[in-house]
Specification:
Blueprint (H helix, E strand, L loop, with lengths): L10 E4 L5 H12 L3 E6 L3 H13 L4 E5 L5 H15 L4 E4 L14 H29 L10 E6 L12 H21 L4 E8 L14 H8 L10 H12 L10 E4 L14
Parallel strand pairs: 1-2, 1-4, 2-3, 4-5, 5-6, 6-7
Bound molecules: NADP nicotinamide-adenine-dinucleotide phosphate.
Length: about 270
């Protein structure tokens, strides 16, 4: 067995890596040997802290400010990453947010904000990544694939979510975006998959776990009877980015403690 780490010498861009799931994935990829671009849009101090932890553990990377919904900023992030590190091997399309409201009260601004970041942002980043993967092709010493894209979707790409129609629509869109790109470029050794997290302990959903009452209520939806941690998603991302999953393409790997198992039927329905 070689001591080579699974993502040794690979360059990863992780969008929205200043917090929560993105931060967890950035650290996990770094542990697996990747150099990480810690993208953020407003929280520079938090991005610095994530990179600081990575460096403290012997990893390397940079922080990069870019709003993923802005074409020029995304293109600049990819250009600068390629200039500095030579290429991009892995894209983690993670940046996302919620703007919740009852459907009849959702403003066009709330709709466009969520679709702009959660869906258009994934399109803009994936397009730049695919261009670079096609240009470079496979480098067998690094990976059997020309490139890997992992879209962070949600269980809400399949579970409808009242009060969150804009968010659920964005994640349903991510599912078909991911599958269509995977189909289009599979023969060129580009792999595109999603991770569908269930409830993960991050700032996006702190209301669902911050009090014991809220947490007990949340557990009714989770057969495994615990909330997920960013590390659970980080572990899945390392696997999907590595050659261990080389024959896996176009799937959503749900990491949700069984949330998709119709928990209402747990006690005989
Ligand atoms: N937590 C869950 O239970 C859960 C479940 C399913 C799916 N997800 C998905 O997981 C992803 C991460 O969520 P999270 O829970 O980790 O949320 P979070 O802790 O709120 O982190 C969101 C991240 O996205 C970044 N971001 C927001 N707008 C951005 C933009 N325009 N451009 C670039 N970055 C931007 C934020 O950076 P700044 O602060 O710098 O703006 C932050 O780093 C999202 O796609 C979310 O839908 C989460």
């Amino acid at each position: 067995m070689s001591n080579r780490k699974k993502l040794q010498d690979q360059i990863a861009i992780v969008t929205g890596a200043s917090s929560g799931i993105g931060a967890g994935i950035a650290k996990a990829l770094s542990e697996a040997g990747a150099t990480v671009v810690v993208n953020y849009s407003s929280s520079a101090d938090k991005a610095e802290a994530v990179l600081g932890e990575i460096k403290q553990r012997g990893g390397q990377g940079i922080i990069w400010k870019a709003d993923v919904s802005k074409e020029a900023e995304v293109q600049d992030m990819f250009r600068k990453t390629i200039e500095q590190f030579g290429t991009v091997d892995i894209l983690i399309n993670n940046a996302g947010l919620q703007k919740d409201a009852k459907f009849h009260e959702i403003t066009l601004e709330q709709w466009e904000k969520v679709i702009g970041i959660n869906l258009t942002g994934q399109f803009l980043c994936a397009r730049e990544a695919v261009k670079e993967f096609l240009k470079r092709g496979v480098v067998p010493s690094r990976s059997k694939s020309a490139g890997k894209i992992i879209c962070i979707s949600s269980v809400h790409e399949v579970i409808p979510w009242a009060g969150h129609a804009n968010y659920a629509a964005s994640k349903g869109g991510v599912m078909m975006l991911m599958k269509s790109i995977a189909q289009e470029y599979a023969s060129m050794k580009i792999r595109v998959n999603s991770i569908g997290p269930g409830a993960i302990r991050t700032p996006i959903n702190h209301a669902a776990w911050q009090t014991p009452e809220a947490y007990q209520n949340l557990l009714k939806l989770i057969p495994s009877k615990r909330i997920g941690e960013a590390e659970d998603i980080g572990n899945a991302a390392v696997w999907l980015a590595s050659d261990d999953s080389e024959y896996v393409n176009g799937i959503t790997l749900f990491v949700d403690g069984g949330m998709l198992l119709y928990p209402g039927f747990e006690d005989n329905g």
